[in-house]
From TrEMBL, chain B:
Predominant subcellular localization, coarse grouping: membrane
Superkingdom of source: Bacteria
UniProt membrane topology term: Multi-pass membrane protein
Nucleus is among the record's keywords: no
Lineage, broadest ranks: Bacteria, Pseudomonadati, Pseudomonadota, Alphaproteobacteria, Rhodobacterales
One GO MF term attached to the UniProt entry: transmembrane transporter activity
InterPro entries per the UniProt record, alphabetical: ABC_transp_permease
Keywords recorded for this protein, A-Z: Cell membrane, Membrane, Transmembrane, Transmembrane helix
Protein's UniProt name: Putative permease abc transporter protein
PANTHER family: ABC TRANSPORTER PERMEASE PROTEIN YPHD-RELATED-RELATED
Cellular localization per UniProt: Cell membrane
Pfam families: BPD_transp_2
Length: 269, 360
């Protein structure tokens, strides 16, 4: 199954990543690979270190050891801004929205559009109508929002609507890859479906996605490969075509031994 | 184990009804019953309305009590003049409070810079414009020190500025030798320092340049906070600093710029204060820090950060001025002015808490 003559290089290649929070070792010499054009699902128990490893990749936390290579280049992001400048977007598990700011302001925070001409270049004036137009367009595409509500403060939205804003923000700006940390956790059936369709859309635009989720049907529906994280390590990588959901859960929880390395799907088929 | 579950590669069965489901998405209609809930929502969206209403109401009430003398153009322009310095300090204070911080040192920065500019221009013969520029630079430097301690050393703003307040105050006493620089000496050597004491007369109203400066300071800061990306970042940081950082804001850099700008505004206030007081006195504006916080709080800017408009601080300063003027004209003892301001602060914070409940 695994192809050792594989020539495509991973977009993200993490080796021996370690992250400690005080005395807790959240990531313990873990590897991580994301390949071009794929949807990589990451599953694991609560506290397995899924959020920590993706945060290390996007610069939100700094790993204590190991190396991360993105597009063949070793990186040491000291903040998420540096990752973002490289076209990497992430939907955080806690969303990272500013409650008092409007939906439009939140979508463009840190990359605001200024008015053309001297109003923009000299007086730094924001082009609010343009930002609102784009934000409205992106949210309508996602079907999560009515169009009148774009200037509404995010704190007046429901949990699921907020999640929609965070997902739309990431999808709108990603150039290289997107990480989504439980993007459908708060969403209803219909809205989850939209996000899954969006994830497939993004893949068809050629942008790979890391999807962290506890929802096995979702994972098995969209994932090309499933990275199973256990006790801070990459435990196994499996092909969803060859394993059932209960197998995946059994491996994840330690009830079943992971398949031997040559049967794992360490790179795409 | 290798039983391929083809069905799991497609939508779930229960999702098939989605095709026939209502395609409308939730719209945001607030079916709030009752006037109180509506008012709460309105105020949540328009946080400056509270101070505006209080300002208008207090003008009407004191107008009724004190009569024509209160409404005379002279008295109204006098109120503007009297609040101008605290107003400028409140503008500086608002910037910091919007980031969920507090700056106890603004008035100390102001007095220190007025002493520095005065010493240089009046006693050391430095050209007045240069002396003022040095004062501005000093204000920025003092603000940078606050910003550095808050962001890089990670000290709480309250403690940081409590410390620098004392430091700046002591420096100011040392430089001034606890002596005032007399008004005549300023007039003779560097009249530019007192320019904001001059006024244009419109009828019986006397509008000082200092009052105009205060309005300009508020207008410029309002523009920065509401029309530029920097301003949005200030609000986002005050709201939730960690989220702002993750969302891609350089929070430390923005915070340092906020403290530096507050220092610059305080130094601009220093120039205006020389005109207002007529001399440079080390004992002036000792309570300016607290008075500026009072104006900000009465103006509806939340001490928890991220909420409120800087124009609220202008209205807050005016409310204090109106109360003081009205109670004085009504010949009420000064102690009752203090008493009334105390209640205003408490009521303002209570209203802020109430408005914030909308979201939770
Ligand atoms: N900021 C932090 N400070 C201290 N410990 C942390 C911090 N963040 C995570 N941890 C610890 O690191 C470990 C891994 O946490 P992480 O959030 O990566 O798990 P997760 O796999 O994303 O879990 P979940 O499924 O619940 O989201 C946990 O034991 C957690 O307690
Ligand atoms: Mg997590």
């Amino acid at each position: 199954m695994s192809d050792t003559t594989q020539t495509i290089e991973p977009i993200v290649k993490g080796r021996g990543i370690v992250k400690r929070y005080g005395r807790v070792t959240a990531i313990d010499h873990s590897d991580f690979d994301l390949y071009p054009g794929e949807i990589l699902a990451v599953i694991g128990d609560n506290g397995a270190g899924k959020s920590s490893i993706v945060k290390a990749i996007c610069g939100a936390v700094q790993p204590d050891d190991g190396e991360i290579v993105i597009d063949g280049e070793k990186v040491h992001f000291s903040s998420p801004i540096e990752a973002r400048d490289k076209g990497i977007e992430i939907v955080y598990q806690n969303l990272a929205l500013s409650p008092a700011l409007s939906i439009a302001d939140n979508m463009f925070v840190g990359r605001e559009i200024r008015k053309p001409g001297i109003m923009g270049s000299w007086f730094k004036m924001l082009d609010k109508p343009e930002m609102q137009r784009i934000a409205r367009e992106k949210l309508t595409e996602l079907g999560l929002m009515t169009v009148q509500s774009i200037n509404q403060a995010v704190e007046t939205l429901s949990g699921g609507q907020r999640q929609g804003v965070a997902v739309a923000r990431a999808a709108a700006f990603a150039k290289k890859f997107i990480i989504m940390d439980e993007p459908t956790a708060a969403l209803g059936v219909k809205e989850s479906r939209r996000v899954l369709e969006l994830i497939k859309d993004v893949r068809s635009r050629g942008i790979p996605i890391v999807l962290i989720s506890h929802n096995m049907p979702h994972v098995f529906e969209v994932a090309d490969r499933i990275h199973i994280h256990r006790l801070g390590k990459r435990h196994a990588v499996i092909d969803p075509e060859n394993y059932s959901m209960s197998d995946a859960v059994a491996i994840m929880t330690g009830a079943m031994e992971p398949p031997p390395i040559e049967q794992q799907q360490l790179s795409p088929k | 184990m290798a039983d391929v579950q083809k069905s799991t590669r497609n939508r779930q069965d229960f999702e098939n009804t989605l095709d026939s489901s209502d395609a409308n998405v939730a719209s945001f209609v607030y079916e709030q019953k009752g006037f109180v809930a509506k008012a709460q929502h309105f105020l949540h969206g328009n946080p400056t309305m509270v101070p505006v209403i209080v300002l208008v109401a207090s003008v009407i009430i004191f107008g009724l009590i004190a009569g024509e003398r209160f409404f005379s153009p002279f008295n109204l322009s006098l109120i503007l003049q009297q609040v101008s310095i605290i107003g400028i300090l409140a503008a500086a204070q608002s910037l910091v409070i919007l980031t969920a911080g507090i700056d106890l040192s603004v008035a100390a920065i102001m007095v220190l810079m007025s002493v520095i500019s005065g010493k240089l221009a009046v006693e050391l013969g430095v050209p007045a414009p240069l002396a003022l520029l040095i004062g501005f630079g000093g204000g920025i430097g003092a603000g940078l020190l606050n910003g550095f301690l808050v962001t890089k050393i990670k000290l709480p703003p309250f403690i940081t500025t409590l410390g620098t307040w004392n430091i700046f105050y002591a420096l100011m006493l040392w430089l001034s030798g606890a002596q005032s620089i007399r008004g005549e000496d300023i007039d003779n050597t560097a009249p530019l320092l007192k320019i904001f004491g001059q006024a244009i007369s419109v009828g019986s109203a006397r509008i000082t340049f200092g009052s105009i400066l205060m309005v300009i300071v508020f207008a410029v800061l309002w523009y920065l906070l509401n029309k530029t990306a920097w301003g949005r970042h200030v609000y986002a940081i005050g709201d939730d600093k960690e989220a702002a950082e993750l969302a891609g804001i350089r929070t430390d850099r923005t915070l340092i710029s906020v403290y530096a700008l507050a220092g610059l505004v305080a130094a601009i206030g220093a120039w205006a204060s020389i005109g207002r007081v007529g001399s440079i006195s080390p004992t002036s504006f000792y309570e300016g820090n607290l008075q500026s916080i009072t104006a900000v709080v009465i103006g509806g800017i939340s001490l928890f950060g991220g909420r409120g408009s800087i124009l609220g601080a202008l209205f807050g300063a005016l409310i204090v001025g109106v109360f003081q003027s009205g109670l004085r004209l009504a010949q009420v003892d000064v102690l009752w002015q203090v008493f009334a301001i105390g209640w205003l602060i408490i009521i303002a914070v209570a209203i802020d808490q109430w408005i914030r409940k909308v979201s939770s």
